[in-house]
Design a protein that fits this description.
By secondary structure, this protein is mainly α. It starts with 8 loop residues before the first helix and ends with a helix.
């Protein structure tokens, strides 16, 4: 299994090898291009040396914010997103012993349970949780019963709706087209 989301080999390797990086990338995936969001964990690791939830959660908030602000910025909104990432990491430390993968591995959960767990995380509403569950099922080896149904419509086989469907530059272009069409439809009120 190897993810190909950002177009940057090092960033994609970190996402593939580090479940926390993947979760943080998903958290950052708002109001910036997907590639920027999912490249964020590598920038954080390079600037702070931290790749685990306990280290990030315990960092001085001002120092962590400064890492987000360095050029190029980790996110368009460094202040709020640095706080969200640290809050997410604190939650993982407090509730999951710092192990992001425990969300989808501890106790052999089914798709509905993983969705429920994801929705308890700060910054993960219904849609973001479903997209992340679809990403786990389609590309990250999660095979819990009912994951496609729990992540609907993002778990649909052969769709190009979200980051869960990006496996190549071609699939990225198809996801972008889908998102563009959805925005146009929403704007038109259809």
């Amino acid at each position: 299994m190897a993810l190909h989301i950002t177009g940057d080999t090092a960033a994609d390797e970190l996402l593939t090898d580090n479940p926390l990086a993947l979760l943080v990338g998903m958290l950052l995936d708002q109001q910036v291009p997907m590639e920027t969001a999912f490249a964020g964990p590598l920038k954080i690791a390079q600037r702070t040396g931290a790749t685990d939830a306990a280290a990030i959660a315990s960092m001085d908030p001002e120092a962590f914010l400064e890492a987000f602000r360095q050029t190029p910025a980790v996110h368009r909104f460094p202040g709020s997103m640095a706080t969200r990432v640290q809050t997410l990491c604190r939650t993982l430390v407090d509730d999951w012993d710092g192990d992001a993968a425990a969300l989808w591995t501890q106790g052999a959960p089914d798709g509905a349970e993983v969705l429920r767990r994801l929705k308890t995380l700060p910054g993960f509403g219904e849609q973001k949780a479903k997209i992340f569950l679809a990403l786990l099922g389609k590309q990250y080896g999660f095979t819990g019963a009912g994951w496609r149904e729990a992540s609907a419509p993002y778990g649909e086989n052969g769709s190009f709706r979200s980051v869960a469907d990006i496996v190549s530059p071609d699939s990225l272009a198809k996801v972008r087209e889908h998102k563009k069409a959805m925005k146009a439809a929403a704007k038109a009120g259809t």
